[in-house]
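Researcher: For the record, we're logging two predictions in this thread. I'll number them. Prediction 1 follows.
Model: Prediction 1, sequence and structure:
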Amino acid sequence: MSSRQLLICAVIAVATVLAGVLRYAGGAAVPAFVAAGVALAGLAWLVAFATESLGARLGPGMTGLLQSTLGNLPEFFVVVFALNAGEVLVAQTSLVGSLLANGLLVLGLTIIVGAYESEDGLMRFKARLPNDTMTMLMLAVFVIVLLGIANSAGDVAARHSRAISVIAALCLLGVYGLWLNSYLRADTAAVVELPGEPPPLALTLGLLAIAGTASAFVSDWFIHALAPAINQLGISRAFAGLVIVAIAGNAVENTTAVLLAAKGEADLAISVVKNSVAQIAVFLFPILILVSLLFKDALTFVLPPVYIASLALSALAIWQITGDGEARDYEGASLVSLFVIVAAVAWFE
């Protein structure tokens, strides 16, 4: 590992220890919440680094598989502990926020930077992955809109939203498995090249185990401090889930995609963002719906109307901007603006 990577690991360790001390020593809610959020973002980086290091030994296709199953560990634990604490709204909005943060905010910033780095102000990338991703995002949006209409209209089907969500989750996971199989066979999964030689295998596996275990504890501390912290700060639960939790849990993708765009690696930058959107829509969300069956408060595809509309309209905007394999800076700015508007709505809820 490089000296920079060792320094980052040290900072993550300090933030994690501090979050633990504030949790069990009865520290103030806001500092505990901030420390846990920083530690969570750091652990997300550590999981991604260990995953990429392991994938460097196995090839790009397998790296895509590892990223899909392990890259969302911190967010997975946050939602699980939120459900365990009865914070269903936080659980829902953190997943919706992850989709919107990646599909609007991060993608928009990536396009702005990519267009700026291009000689003619036009960011170009292969259209297959964006279109594949939009197909899967539309599947998830279809279920969400359908259940939202049934719930708003008082339809009989709305009484069975939990069962319908489970059936839909299984369908989405099946589609994701088929897509992932073709993606792996084509061996085109995005890989972020690591500087220098990858760390030893034993160290990589150790980092992955430590990061995964620590993510579970930090997620618990994060949710424990959530309610008192947002009450003190005057922040709505919807804003906390949609913006704060979503950005903290996806900090790695946020940074990586923009940096890759700045280097002129348009295809790889878009792949990082789009892979994340696809994984959340048809992998993480459905998996968490199945896991939530173990809790009193189940997670379903039934969302508040404002977030149903946000997802549906955002999906159309993303498809329109990226479906042709090119985008300009004003289109990226449009996506960022959409995220800011949704965040503003969540702030005043």
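Researcher: Logged. Prediction 2.
Model: Prediction 2, sequence and structure:
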Amino acid sequence: MGSSNIDVFELTVPSRMEELSAVHDLVDKATRAFNLNEEIAHWIELAVSESAINAIQHGNGLDPSKEVFLRIAFDGKALEIIVEDQGGGFDLSDVPDPTDTENLMKPGGRGILIIKSFMDTVELTDGADGRSRLRMVKNFVGEQSPGS
């Protein structure tokens, strides 16, 4: 994401599930502006939705006084998505594998699995300002070009 020619879409919403429609609208605007094909746009929508739900529900505990920040940026080669909440964060390696036999009937971990299966990079960090930051990157090279 080092190019100076970067398209960016940003949104900050209170931690209420009703705000997911605004998140969906932002993703739709971004994927159209970036000329991403329908299949890629679907997977981006799914990754952003899962991360926003996690930020609202788990990170901020459905507390509407806390906010979720979303940033979607594209430089023509890579799509970077940042989702930040005001929660305490967690360790990605602590999320149980939902495909493990003992976890098949448990609801947790599926969103992270979906995100990791599509995105090339998934990083979770705690910011100095007390925010938890999920950074996801999808690289576009060769056959994966956005408009394909």
